[in-house]
Amino acid sequence: MNWIETDGVGLRYELTGSGAGTLVLIHEMGGTLEGWDLVLPLLQGSRAVLRYDTRGAGLSTKLRGTASLDAMADDVVALLDALGRNDWVTVAGGAVGGAIALHVAGRHPGRVRAVAALGPATGIPEERRPAIHAHADRVEREGMIGVADDELARSYPQSLRSDAARYRRFRARWLANDPGSYAAIYRMLSGLDMAAEIAALRLPTLFLAGTQDPLRPPALIEPLSRTVAGSRFEAIETGHFMATQTPERVAASLNGFLAATGG
């Protein structure tokens, strides 16, 4: 593990593997780079793989107020530049990480060869925004333990907890989140609407949706995928934290996409 400073923010990262190309893996809201631990050994092909803790997560600089999706996308490019990874790049992310991945592709089109979005959190309906702000306030007021049961019941349902030890580790790591940073990302989501940006993408794009994910179900992700010409959509048997819950299925989908796109 190592750290790089960019725009006054310290980012923890890990760069492994070798090859001309780079695969960037972006974790979900409330996650850390370790969220890809079970997927990484299953990925096929020769490439460098960059994982990092986003702003506000893990051991990177924490956030207050409202996060910025522009800044979070620019962090990816800053890391790539600092590490000298200037050849082709595929960016993959889950949930909020999926939104970051799609925004990197839209904001820095010359740097990204392909993008994979796993249950991407690309916007909140206007009628739900007051509730999201109220929930962010509750997180700051009560801490992660105050919202754990409510949130994890939806994002990590009982049907996906057959590996009890894996769930306990995940929950403990999730509880270690900084409440202020978590709330800041919620507030960012409340004002997010990426529909037009996503529809303008012109590069190979994979959209994954979990059949047991009530937050970003196939019924929400599949229509989004149809706005991107030539994109690929897959519904897989998993939940919101799919890289942890079903790493084999996620790896199989990513391996197929990377092989098809020369990644």
From TrEMBL:
<dbReference type="InterPro" id="IPR050266">
    <property type="entry name" value="AB_hydrolase_sf"/>
</dbReference>
<dbReference type="Pfam" id="PF12146">
    <property type="entry name" value="Hydrolase_4"/>
</dbReference>
<keyword id="KW-0378">Hydrolase</keyword>
<protein>
    <recommendedName>
        <fullName>Serine aminopeptidase S33 domain-containing protein</fullName>
    </recommendedName>
</protein>
<feature type="domain" description="Serine aminopeptidase S33">
    <location>
        <begin position="38"/>
        <end position="229"/>
    </location>
</feature>
<dbReference type="InterPro" id="IPR022742">
    <property type="entry name" value="Hydrolase_4"/>
</dbReference>
<dbReference type="InterPro" id="IPR029058">
    <property type="entry name" value="AB_hydrolase_fold"/>
</dbReference>
<dbReference type="InterPro" id="IPR000073">
    <property type="entry name" value="AB_hydrolase_1"/>
</dbReference>
